[in-house]
Amino acid sequence: MPQSKENPEVLSRLYIRNLPLLVTSNVFGFEGEFSSYEPFGFGDGEENDDFVAVGGLFDYDLADLSEFLNRPGSLHAVKGCIWLFEQEQALGFSSVSTNIRMTVIKLKSGGLWVHAPIAPTKECIQLVKELGAPVEYIVLPTFAYEHKIFVGPFSRKFPRAKIWVAPRQWSWPLNLPIELFGIFRAKTLKDGDLSTPWADEIEQKVLSSPEVGIGPYVEVAFYHKRSRTLLVTDAVIFVPRQPPECISKESLLASAENGLAVKLLSKGKEVPQEPVIDNKMNRQKGWERMVLQILFLGPSNLLEPNASFAQMSQKLIVSPIVKTLVFNKVPEKVRDWTDSISRDWRFKRIIPAHFAAPVNASRSDFLAAFAFLDDLLGERYVTRPSLSLLFASIMGKAVSYFPPDDMKTLSSLDQFLVSVGAVKKTVSGRKR
Questions:
Q1: Fewest C-beta atoms under 10 Å: which of 255, 300, 386, 396?
Q2: Separation CA 85–CA 102 (nearest Å)
Q3: What is the DSSP letter of 31?
Q4: What distance in Å separates the CA atoms of residue 314 and residue 238, rounded to the nearest whole number?
């Protein structure tokens, strides 16, 4: 067997060739709809030409990450300095899919800054090269497997790019060094670091929690000053009414079938067995079922998902999974992070790594998504001006409402994980 010290990337490929698909690594909330996509400008009266949305699908076998099947993609071509690339992401071996997003920003230097790289399909790499600028920096903003797994393969396509990663990287079930994911010579992102090569254009803030279970939650938020855009990974999402363009019709129709999951989650109603015809209604039903399973794991009624879907879509929220299993455990850390973001950055739109983007959202919208922290922390932990706190709290009551029946499975899972020690019951050191 070739030794890693002779060629360290050989060891990485050999390991990844046998790496199991870690479905449990991140079922966090996401974003991406371009059927209602509207590009936007930097200021009043300017042409709306600052964003490009790129959609593409991928299939890949973890047995060989260097080979991907290409599928047709779509390109929303507009001029500017920010581009959004998307691919379909299947969750495990189910019929559930969502989109995963890579954001590319052109720096004043003329080079490209890549946030959360996606699978380097031939189509993806070709589209990046068509931007006509060198990739200077590749940024991994999280510990999450679904984003980490593509950094190595993507960086090999652009070997001159410098890699920066979120701190405290970890993996499960084996806690492996990032070199075994094909990530070499990476620098670590630090909170508020003004020494990064992009510091005069893009600022950063790190959320690094105590261990909430098998590992800490780590996410780095970025602020692109010129466009007043906030970039996050999984912290908030905006579920679009229609499915993202990159979700294939095959996936949507498979989700629309009345299979075992629907029979188990039908509120006791009889589940008809009928063929699924390819039409707009069935594609929409498939999308609604996907969303509810992503957000709740076991929603109350997959047979008739429209009511719960309406409650969860078209608003900026924290994913129920992230809220329940992570943020509820460390509210002080999360509050410090969100308050710092809203205090220091005057953003007017948000780009998450999943579901819809860009989302037109203000600092008040962002704080409202985290209003559930108020109930956990109470009045003893007020760091914002009272008027801002009141406004965000009022908005947040509606934003943070999740259908109780849909939350039952997730709540039971939380209790089970606490009982077996996989997730902690403490909240910043105090018992709930």
A1: 386
A2: 5
A3: B
A4: 6
DSSP of 290-316: HHHHHHHSS-SBSSS-HHHHHHHBSSE
Query: What does the pLDDT look like over 395-404, one tens digit per residue?
Result: 555 666 898 9
Domains in the chain, number: 2
Q: Are residues 154 and 56 in the same domain?
A: yes
Residue owning tokens 């990739």: 135
Where does a domain end: 268, 291, 312?
312
Dist. CA 239–CA 311, nearest whole Å: 10
Contact assessment for residue 161 and residue 183, using Cβ atoms and an 8 Å cutoff: no
Question: Tens digit of pLDDT for each residue in 142-165?
Answer: 998 889 999 999 999 999 999 999
Q: Residue 4's domain spans which residues?
A: 1-244+317-422
Instruction: Note the Cα 356 to chain centre separation in Å.
Output: 10
Residue 386 maps to a domain: yes
Give per-residue burial for 236-274: e unless 16+ CB within 10 Å, then b.
Answer: bbbbbebbbbbbbeebbbbbbbeeebbeebbeeeeeeee
Gyration radius from the chain CA atoms: 21
Q: Tokens for 360, please give them.
A: 């037109």
- Spatial separation of the C-alpha atoms in residues 143 and 148, rounded to whole Å: 7
How far apart, in whole angstroms, are the C-alpha atoms of residue 19 and residue 90? 17
Q: How confident is the model at residue 215 (pLDDT cuts 50, 70, 90)?
A: confident
Tokens for 375? 């109930």
Q: Is 378 left (phi over 0), alpha (psi -120 to 50) or beta?
A: left
pTM for the model stands at 0.81
Of 289, 312, 335, the residue at which a domain comes to its end is 312
Q: Please check the confidence at residue 8 and state whether its pLDDT lies above 70.
A: no
Closest to 205 (Cα-Cα) out of 247, 233, 181, 180: 233
Same domain, residue pair 202 and 253: no
Q: Is the preceding peptide bond at 210 cis, omega within 30 degrees of 0?
A: no
Q: How far is CA 182 from CA 16, 65, 268, 287, 361, in A?
A: 9, 10, 48, 34, 36
